[in-house]
């Protein structure tokens, strides 16, 4: 009887711990000095994963958007034109125009895909699509958690500094494995 009660107690504690809601990591509050903000995000995808398209706002470069990441772009109050700077071999909607209003947040998804057709070369797509806040926050969930972890300061202990110094010392005495040992 005692085993049964302890088993049920442990099981209920485990179930309660697993069903507890995770802490929600959200976007930072909008600064009152910023007229509006565009969040450009690219969900993690295997299609075109190594390509980092350049992002241009009104013809000026603002950065690159890697796979599974997002960027925050403060913007002024007029029509803003977002463009993906890619080579000609990429198809899709690479241009998006947004009429910006005061103190609003806009969410733009950069999606990528690859299409395979029989006896034809494959086609690679990048698309810009404006989405609502709820959809964007659901898709950006893991990106926001990773950004919160990256923002936390990391302290380096004396032991880590010593190991790093030893590793650098050992790098001077590495063997060149690209050289043929039997060559004269």
How many beta strands in the DSSP annotation? 9
Helix run count: 4
Strand order of the largest sheet: 4-1-8-9-6
Rounded to an integer in angstroms, the radius of gyration calculated over CA atoms is 25 Å
CATH architecture of one domain: Sandwich
Overall average pLDDT: 76
Beta content comes to: 25-35%
CATH class of one domain: Mainly Beta
User: What oligomeric state best describes the polypeptide chains here?
Assistant: single chain
Terminal-residue CA separation: 80 Å
Flag low-confidence runs: 19-25
Question: Per the principal axes of the C-alpha atoms, what is the gross shape?
Answer: extended
What does it look like?
The chain has 184 residues and is of the alpha+beta class. It has a domain of 119 residues: Immunoglobulin-like, CATH 2.60.40. It is 27% helix and 32% strand. The longest helix has 18 residues.
Give the SSE map:
Elements: H1 2-19, E1 36-42, E2 54-57, E3 60-64, E4 69-75, E5 79-85, E6 90-91, E7 95-99, E8 104-115, E9 123-131, H2 133-139, H3 141-151, H4 158-171
Parallel strand pairs: 1-8, 6-9
Antiparallel strand pairs: 1-4, 2-3, 2-5, 5-7, 8-9
Entry keywords:
single chain, four-stranded antiparallel beta sheet, about 180 residues, alpha+beta, Immunoglobulin-like, 9 strands, 4 helices
In summary, what is this structure?
With 184 residues, this protein is an alpha+beta fold. It contains 4 helices and 9 strands, in the order αβββββββββααα.
């Amino acid at each position: 009887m005692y085993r049964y009660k302890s088993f049920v107690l442990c099981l209920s504690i485990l179930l309660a711990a697993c069903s507890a809601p995770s802490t929600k990591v959200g976007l930072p509050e909008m600064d009152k000095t910023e007229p509006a903000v565009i969040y450009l995000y690219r969900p993690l995808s295997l299609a075109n994963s190594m390509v980092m398209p350049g992002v241009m706002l009104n013809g000026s470069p603002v950065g690159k958007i890697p796979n599974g990441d997002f960027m925050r772009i403060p913007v002024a109050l007029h029509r803003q034109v977002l463009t993906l700077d890619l080579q000609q071999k990429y198809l899709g909607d690479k241009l998006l125009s947004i009429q910006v209003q005061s103190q609003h947040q806009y969410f733009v998804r950069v999606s990528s895909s690859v299409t395979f057709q029989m006896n034809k070369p494959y086609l690679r797509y990048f698309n810009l699509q404006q989405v609502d806040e709820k959809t964007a926050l659901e898709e950006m969930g893991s990106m926001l958690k990773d950004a919160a972890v990256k923002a936390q300061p990391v302290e380096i202990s004396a032991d880590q500094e010593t190991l790093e110094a030893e590793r650098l010392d050992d790098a001077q005495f590495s063997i060149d494995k690209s050289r043929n040992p039997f060559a004269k």
